[in-house]
């Protein structure tokens, strides 16, 4: 977007940012008397100053405030310089001649631009010993807007030389330069750009990026862009450079962790193809779907299908005022992702790739076979049975002389590949001119798994094109293609895990993986009851393959009727295809000793299914923006239509209209208002439409005349209130569904079902101090979700399931605080620190038909969503809790309990432990989330690391479908098996270890696996999310080879975690089947040609 600037505004820019030490003397041919007169007028202007011990920046700014001269300088020239000066109507020429030499400075003048340079005494003049070959260079300079606008008065000069010109009104330039020289393109208000001239090409088209302050920064918000200083709602932007660029991430969702306050990102698995993170914005506000709306270039899309290299910006819309423009789908917040577009200028080629090795952050360590056998015997005797393994068997197993008959198997080492490779390669080509621009990126990623036959291959290609059919008509056409192939062993998978991992917790170490091969017989695998070992599954069990394809086209025309009035449109079509293939040969399992057939696996040849879904999106909008003196106005209105079909008979549609107004007076008083109306096919005729208004106010206090605090450069107060909707209830819930096989009503609907409504109050504060070195953002929010959709257990006669009702209410309150400090110890050494913390708590305030209990989870009025429900406990029963016979209890116990079992609390005091003693025992949702990002740069070397963690919350050992899970209870004499970990074995209750953590061993530990707080653990943690060390190769040297910039880096993801949880990862909180979060070591390279 092109931003207009008056001459006075342009003169307000204070510095010319370059990366290397040099001086640039800007001259003009002065061929016309008019130009000479203009320069003379610049010299003759008079200024009055009375300054005492101020920074040189303040001195230069004071001159600019009194003249129409633009002062250009390199930061390092004035660093640590302070000045005291008095002048009364002194000519600018005389003032500069008088003061600058005192500080080793001089100046050159061109038109109205004065450039500070080192004085002749303080610089070394290079003497040419032989004539240099000159080449003629010509070209054109544009801004980076869309469409690009030609820039006049851009300085084009040779780095370290005296040659230089300015672009004309059309942005054109032409000059002769030495071959191999570097051209510097500079203009007030824009970042300078250095371009090496390495060959005899005679045409260089360049685009310059605007150099804006944090307040002037343009931020992508709801369906438009706004300057940050005019935003009154709660909007946060992800630091792309810190979170994405040069990071070995497999999914974009992973990069959001530790980037924005209020954004809770939890990675539940490291499974290739299933390692996407769960994202919540400001916690959970409903009993139903709490996922945020994700829009990529304005269209709903799974962000994990996007190559991170193509990302231009990520914006988080948190409150109602920011998100209301998206209405029915914005109740849980909105994430806006914008992809990169081509810029007018040279062809730019970027390679970004890395090679890495992954290893699990945690793996179970199980007891060896002799320990298992002794524990097994102990459990049998404690349960009134006989020992199962003789001393002779244990001794021979311990000796290891006969591993076939007395095996001692470490199943983790047999199955798990502790180091699996990961690689990603992206190649981008972009460029164009004022007529057409393009950005094409291709990415290939391969991720191998730690279990056999587990891998993921992904190929993405994106082509973003922009064509200016005229000065006022622009078309953006974007095409995206994705293919992702994932393979798993033919063992059921779910929730980011595999049953092969679950088998590790079930198969004893006394089972042999496979017996020695005998001629004429297939491989014979070891067995335990009906459990076939995981090695058999991985070698002869076949595979499951998933192929996901996506093709997306996104067309966005824009007609600028005037400079202030635009008409925009958008059409998008997406086709997704999911193909499932299962493949396995016949296999026959024999007993090794008897050679009897014990089991047959039937062939599963090309079991196949395919699902295709389509998505259509069409929208049109009109927007108007205008500055009227101190008044800044933006208004827009439009409509959209979208339709989704999942490949079967299920489809849904949404029709919407919306309007938005932003107003700012004197950059002090801000107003935002928006309104959206949605019509959804998910609701019946009487409740099809929802209406969602919002309003926000802002006050830039620092722009008030009475506010004169030098240390505070920005002070904004914000407040907003609005209503959003939630339509994520599934399809056809307002209708009765009929079973086509027998004609009976199978699901009872409710024609009066309507939207969940979310009302949000937000009060915020933005501050910047010490010349923007320190910035602070604080928000308090209060969300109330009413008409929450519930499914009471009472259903009409003959129907299956429950009819949905709008009969619940949830409140969600919290605060957010983020800080950002940028420090600079010298020209070569700078650093930044970005900490953030969030407190959030939800509460169910109304719940028809409650409580709702599912396993260990409960939703009950007055509690948090999905609280834990079960028995309270008080440690372990000891001998003192029983009479001398060890069977008669002095305290209430569950039938059959004895010393060493879990001691449950009789809450109601009736002397019996039963379901009436259950209560809410824990909360799985952390109320506190925090992060801190640290970044250090010394010359070309950079170091960055991220800390991320949560406060107190509970983790349940609800693993493997059991109430206490395989991680917690060690043995099970049934066919389902069960093996203790070494940690469990060392901390189990015994007569000589009565202060143990875990209860005693039993053959059937039924009373010790009841749902109780005994199996809840505090899952607070602090994780070092990544550490990265990078080095930027010398640009001057690399430019000789046509390389604009290059960087190598070493990165380690998830290297350390600090937690009280011993046997699981507190972030993933998975079960025995869960694939561990991976620790990744990688070496990466980024090269820009």
Automatic annotation (TrEMBL):
Keywords: Cell outer membrane, Membrane, TonB box, Transmembrane, Transmembrane beta strand, Transport. It is a multi-pass membrane protein. One of its GO terms (cellular component) is cell outer membrane. InterPro entries: Beta-barrel_TonB, Beta-barrel_TonB_sf, CarboxyPept-like_regulatory, Plug_dom, Plug_dom_sf, TonB-dep_OMP_SusC/RagA, TonB-dep_OMP_SusC/RagA_CS, TonB-dep_rcpt-like. Residues 242-334 form the TonB-dependent receptor plug domain. It is found in: Cell outer membrane. Residues 543-860 form the TonB-dependent receptor-like beta-barrel domain. Coiled coil: none annotated. Gene3D superfamilies: Carboxypeptidase-like, regulatory domain, TonB-dependent receptor, beta-barrel domain, TonB-dependent receptor, plug domain. Belongs to the TonB-dependent receptor family. This is TonB-linked outer membrane protein, SusC/RagA family. It comes from Sphingobacterium spiritivorum ATCC 33861. The lineage of its organism: Bacteria, Pseudomonadati, Bacteroidota, Sphingobacteriia, Sphingobacteriales.
């Amino acid at each position: 977007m092109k931003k207009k600037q008056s001459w006075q505004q342009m003169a307000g820019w204070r510095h010319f940012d370059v990366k290397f030490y040099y001086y640039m003397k800007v001259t003009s041919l002065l061929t016309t008397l008019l130009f000479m007169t203009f320069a003379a007028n610049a010299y003759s202007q008079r200024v009055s100053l009375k300054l005492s011990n101020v920074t040189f920046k303040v001195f230069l700014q004071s001159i600019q405030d009194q003249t129409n001269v633009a002062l250009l300088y390199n930061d390092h020239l004035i660093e640590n310089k302070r000045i005291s000066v008095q002048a009364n109507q002194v000519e600018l020429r005389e003032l500069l001649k008088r003061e600058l030499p005192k500080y080793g400075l001089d100046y050159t003048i061109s038109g109205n631009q004065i450039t500070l340079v080192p004085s002749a005494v303080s610089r070394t003049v290079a003497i040419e010993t032989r004539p240099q070959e000159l080449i003629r260079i010509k070209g054109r300079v544009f801004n980076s807007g869309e469409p690009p606008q030609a820039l006049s008065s851009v300085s084009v000069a040779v780095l370290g030389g005296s040659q230089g010109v300015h672009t004309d009104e059309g942005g054109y330039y032409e000059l002769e330069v030495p071959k191999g020289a570097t051209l510097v393109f500079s203009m007030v208000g824009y970042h300078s750009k250095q371009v090496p001239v390495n060959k005899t090409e005679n045409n260089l088209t360049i685009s310059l990026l605007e150099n804006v302050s944090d307040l002037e920064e343009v931020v992508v918000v709801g369906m438009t862009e706004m300057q940050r200083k005019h935003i009154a709602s709660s909007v946060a932007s992800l630091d792309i450079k810190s979170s994405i660029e040069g990071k070995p991430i497999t999914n974009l969702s992973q990069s959001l962790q530790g980037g924005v306050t209020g954004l809770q990102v939890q990675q539940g698995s490291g499974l290739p193809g299933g390692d996407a993170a769960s994202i919540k914005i400001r916690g959970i506000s409903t009993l139903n779907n709490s996922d945020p709306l994700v829009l990529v270039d304005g269209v709903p899309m799974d962000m994990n299908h996007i190559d991170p290299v193509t990302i231009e910006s990520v914006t988080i819309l948190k409150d109602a005022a920011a998100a209301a423009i998206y209405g029915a789908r914005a109740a849980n917040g909105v994430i806006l992702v914008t992809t990169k577009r081509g810029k007018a200028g040279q062809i730019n080629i970027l390679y970004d790739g890395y090679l890495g090795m992954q290893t699990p952050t945690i793996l179970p360590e199980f007891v060896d076979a002799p320990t298992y056998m002794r524990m097994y015997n102990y459990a049998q005797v404690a349960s009134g049975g006989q020992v199962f393994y003789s001393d002779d068997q244990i001794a021979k197993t311990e000796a290891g002389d006969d591993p076939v008959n007395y095996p001692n198997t470490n199943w983790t080492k047999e199955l798990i590949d502790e180091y699996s490779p990961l690689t990603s390669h992206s190649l981008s080509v972009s460029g164009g001119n004022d007529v057409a621009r393009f950005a094409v990126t291709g990415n290939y990623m391969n991720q191998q798994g730690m279990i056999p036959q587990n891998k993921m291959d992904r190929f993405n290609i994106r082509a973003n094109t922009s064509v200016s059919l005229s000065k006022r008509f622009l078309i953006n056409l974007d095409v995206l293609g994705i293919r992702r192939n994932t393979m798993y062993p033919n063992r059921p998978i779910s929730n980011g895990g595999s049953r092969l991992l679950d088998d590790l917790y079930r198969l004893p170490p006394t089972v042999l993986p496979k017996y020695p091969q005998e001629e004429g017989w297939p491989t014979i695998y070891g067995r335990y009851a009906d459990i076939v070992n995981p090695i058999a599954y991985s070698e002869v069990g076949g595979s499951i393959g998933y192929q996901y394809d996506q093709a997306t086209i996104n067309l966005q025309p824009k007609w600028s009727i005037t400079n202030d009035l635009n008409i925009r449109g958008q059409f998008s079509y997406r086709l997704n295809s999911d193909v499932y293939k299962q493949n396995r040969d016949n296999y026959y399992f024999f007993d090794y000793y008897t050679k009897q057939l014990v089991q047959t696996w039937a062939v599963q040849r090309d079991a196949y299914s395919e699902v295709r879904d389509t998505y259509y999106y069409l929208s049109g909008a009109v927007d108007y923006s205008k500055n009227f003196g101190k008044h800044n106005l933006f208004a827009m209105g439009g409509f959209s239509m979208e339709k989704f079909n999942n490949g079967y008979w299920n489809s849904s549609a949404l029709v919407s209209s919306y309007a938005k107004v932003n107003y700012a007076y004197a950059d002090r008083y801000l107003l935002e208002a928006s309104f959206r109306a949605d019509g959804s096919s998910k609701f019946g005729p009487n409740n099809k439409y929802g209406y969602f208004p919002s309003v926000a106010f802002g006050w830039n206090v620092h722009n008030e005349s009475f506010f004169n605090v030098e240390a505070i450069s920005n002070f904004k107060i914000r407040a907003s209130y609005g209503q959003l909707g939630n339509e994520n209830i599934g399809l056809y819930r307002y209708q009765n569904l009929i079973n086509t096989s027998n004609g009976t009503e199978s699901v009872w609907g409710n024609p009066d079902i309507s939207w969940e409504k979310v009302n949000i109050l937000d009060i915020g504060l933005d501050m910047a101090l010490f010349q923007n070195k320190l910035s602070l953002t604080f928000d308090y929010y209060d969300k109330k979700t009413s008409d929450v959709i519930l499914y009471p257990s009472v259903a009409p006669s003959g129907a299956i399931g429950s009819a949905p009702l709008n009969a619940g209410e949830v409140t969600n309150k919290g605060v957010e605080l983020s800080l950002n400090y940028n420090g600079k110890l010298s020209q070569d050494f700078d650093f930044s620190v970005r900490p953030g913390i969030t407190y959030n708590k939800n509460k169910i305030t109304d719940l028809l038909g409650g409580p709702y209990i599912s396993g260990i989870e409960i939703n009950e009025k007055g509690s948090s969503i999905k609280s834990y429900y079960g028995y309270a406990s008080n440690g372990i029963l000891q001998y003192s809790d029983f009479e001398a016979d060890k069977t008669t209890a002095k305290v209430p116990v569950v039938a059959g309990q004895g010393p060493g079992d879990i001691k449950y609390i009789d809450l109601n005091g009736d002397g019996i432990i039963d379901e009436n003693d259950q209560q809410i025992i824990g909360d799985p949702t952390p109320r506190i989330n925090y992060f801190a990002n640290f970044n250090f740069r010394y010359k070309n070397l950079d170091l960055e690391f991220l800390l991320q963690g949560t406060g107190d919350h509970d983790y349940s050992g609800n693993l493997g479908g059991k109430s206490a899970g395989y991680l917690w209870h060690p043995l099970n004499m049934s066919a389902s098996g069960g093996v203790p970990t070494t940690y469990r074995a060392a901390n189990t209750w015994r007569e000589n270890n009565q202060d143990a953590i875990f209860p005693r061993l039993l053959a059937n530990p039924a009373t010790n696996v009841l749902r109780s707080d005994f199996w809840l653990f505090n899952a607070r943690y602090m994780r070092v999310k990544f550490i990265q060390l990078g080095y930027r190769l010398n640009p001057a040297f690399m430019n000789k080879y046509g390389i604009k910039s290059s960087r190598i880096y070493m990165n380690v993801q998830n290297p350390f975690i600090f937690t009280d949880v011993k046997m699981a990862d507190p972030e993933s909180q998975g079960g025995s089947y869960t694939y561990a979060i991976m620790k990744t070591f990688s070496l990466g390279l980024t090269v820009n040609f």
